[in-house]
Amino acid sequence: MEYEMFKDRLRTTIEKYGTRNESIRCSGDHPPSIEVIGGGQVEMPLLVYVSREKRPSHPHHFKAGALNVLLRVSSIISNSLHLLILDCDMYCNDPTSARKAMCFHLDPKISPTLAFVQFPQRFQNISKSDIYDSGLRCTFSVRWEGLDGLQGPVLSGTCFYIKRVAFHGSFIQNDNDFLKLKESFGSSNEFIKSLRQNYDPSMNRDGNCLSAMQLRETQLLASCSYENQTKWGIEVGFLYQSVLEDYLTGLTMHCRGWTSVYCNPSKPQFLGSGVTNMNDMLVQGTRWMSGLFDVAISNYSPLIYGPLRMSILESICYAYLAYFPLYFIPVWCFGIIPQLCLLNGIPLYPKVSDSFCMIFAVIFLSSLSKHLVEVLLTGGSFQTWINEQRIWIITSVTCDLYGSMDAVMKKIGMREASFLTTDKVMDDEKEKLYQMGKFDFRTSTPMIAPLVILVILNMASFMLGLVRVIATGDWDKMLVQVVLSFYILIMSLPIMEGMTMRKDKGRVPSSITGLSFVVAMAFLTVGSIVLKD
């Protein structure tokens, strides 16, 4: 009954204030609100609604700040030893997930050092073709499986059971006095008491509601100023130095000696909603790349911070992820330089008749073959392989570039951190395009223009360069560059289709195509002049 009343109040608020523009404007300035739902008349788990205080003058640290508030508030309500972290768009698909996680957490052989049990993210709205690689197959079916053989997978933001004590840093020791703990964890006496394993929240058993004292404490713990002059977000809880708080927090846990486990049962334990349009994919990817590169150029760089604190192999794996955004450099180079040289008849690679050319061929084909084998062994298809290759190129050109730039600008103080969320509300028109396997190019110009420019540049270079090669007969010198440009165009077929053939609303806008054509032609002209000189 209480829960139904709570839902009615939420619906009334939404009808009164709306869900988007109006609520967004006022969401950054409100007091804390803690509400307990569930009484003694109905047997149901205790449900506590927590809305932390937000003020324009105080940074709220996005998702990490919200999670740290929940950690503190829950510590004086239940103080459970283990926590389940789920994103708002995910739900538990199998109630036995807790038992599966506890099998690891209660195993006396691994429990003393085990911080969390990570489950894969699975999505219920992914189409069979999965043109945007929303299922994250490579991450949850390959990379995390490999990390499980070391110190464990990276903390993935959702779908994991974690020990509460893993968030406490290195400050919990039996001989720590009360004042020193308050310097790290804040001024709440009740919260400091909860750090001890024998702490009993002493809930009011008559109705499972909070006492007046607990209510005051929860208000204090959810206030925006509570973390001032403490270690929260620095060494305690989820860390704030990156918008990808899960990656950084997991890194520091592994560096403190904690381990993790990857549990991947055949039945999905948790289900959620994946991105189903290009705009959300690029926004989400840019945020991820920015967060990873935040760590790469910080004091927590895995190549510097990691090797002395955890295994060298685990450090290399973390470093691979942290520096992943730098893929934009070789991808942009391979998308421009060989094509310019092809257009101007300048060979970059050894002749096909030269045995040295086999080295380049083996590297290129082995890389593609390795990826194809991984896809097939994890239940994917040849089309899955093509889609993942295509998305890798698209995100390298856009997300990796903008994510790296964003991290660098934050580092030098040119801009503040931002956390752009993806809209998981289904749009009928976008959903129809997604189910048909057609890309929806309705995104911002800075996101789509670089892709269109590179495609036009490759189209012009390939056609004009091929004519030159046929006329001169320089196949032996130029074949590698012809094949490379042809491969890029094959992977860019949806973009070319969106530029030329499609008439629906998801096509590439004519204005962007025209602007990109001018830029590409200018680049080819200037590049040709430079190369000839």
Notes on the protein architecture:
- There is one protein chain.
- The chain has helices spanning 2-17, 21-26, 62-75, 97-105, 137-147, 178-185, 189-194, 212-221, 245-255, 278-296, 302-305, 312-322, 328-343, 357-377, 382-397, 399-411, 428-435, 445-472, 475-491, 493-500, 510-532, and strands spanning 33-37, 47-51, 82-85, 90-92, 114-118, 122-123, 160-163, 259-262, 270-272.
- By secondary structure, it is α/β, with parallel strands linked by helices.
- The protein has a four-stranded mixed β-sheet with strand order 3-7-5-8. It has a three-stranded mixed β-sheet with strand order 4-9-6, with no helix packed on it.
Strand order of the largest sheet: 3-7-5-8
What can be said about the biggest beta sheet? Answer: 4 strands, mixed
Distance between the termini: 80 Å
Shape: elongated
Strand-residue fraction?
5-15%
Spans of at least 5 consecutive residues with low confidence: 19-26
Radius of gyration: 27 Å
Number of distinct helices: 21
Mean pLDDT: 87
- Total strand segments: 9
Alpha-beta classification? alpha/beta
Measured as a percent range, the helix fraction is 40-55%
SSE string? HHEEHEEHEEHEHHHHEEHHHHHHHHHHHH
Key terms for this structure?
533 residues; alpha/beta; four-stranded mixed sheet; three-stranded mixed sheet; elongated
Give the arrangement of secondary structure elements.
Layout: H1 2-17, H2 21-26, E1 33-37, E2 47-51, H3 62-75, E3 82-85, E4 90-92, H4 97-105, E5 114-118, E6 122-123, H5 137-147, E7 160-163, H6 178-185, H7 189-194, H8 212-221, H9 245-255, E8 259-262, E9 270-272, H10 278-296, H11 302-305, H12 312-322, H13 328-343, H14 357-377, H15 382-397, H16 399-411, H17 428-435, H18 445-472, H19 475-491, H20 493-500, H21 510-532
Parallel strand pairs: 5-8, 6-9
Antiparallel strand pairs: 1-2, 3-7, 4-9, 5-7
